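Consider the tokenized backbone below.
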């Protein structure tokens, strides 16, 4: 009996809980925030434009969240209790 939240990665064959991943970079997000703060000191319009870019980038990163394999970071996951996963598991572990 498998935990319903367990996933099988068809890229590497790993069985486990998925990890949450975000597209983009946290470093770029921080850079945009710092640039918008310093831009506001130099020129209010420049700071405002950079802040809008920062907000759009943050929203895009949050919207692009996906679950990936904890071992290889591939997004090719299927539920461990699905028929295809059961076939793959039984093929690689015939004694279990």
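A designed sequence for it:
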């Amino acid at each position: 009996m498998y935990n319903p939240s367990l996933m099988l990665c068809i890229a590497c064959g790993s069985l486990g809980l998925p990890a949450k991943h975000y597209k983009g970079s946290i470093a770029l997000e921080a850079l945009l925030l710092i640039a918008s703060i310093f831009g506001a000191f130099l020129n209010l319009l420049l700071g405002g434009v950079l802040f809008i870019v920062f907000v759009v980038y943050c929203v895009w990163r949050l919207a692009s969240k996906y679950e990936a394999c904890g071992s290889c970071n591939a997004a090719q996951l299927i539920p461990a209790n699905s028929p295809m996963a059961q076939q793959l598991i039984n093929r690689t572990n015939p004694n279990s």
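The chain has a mean pLDDT of 89.
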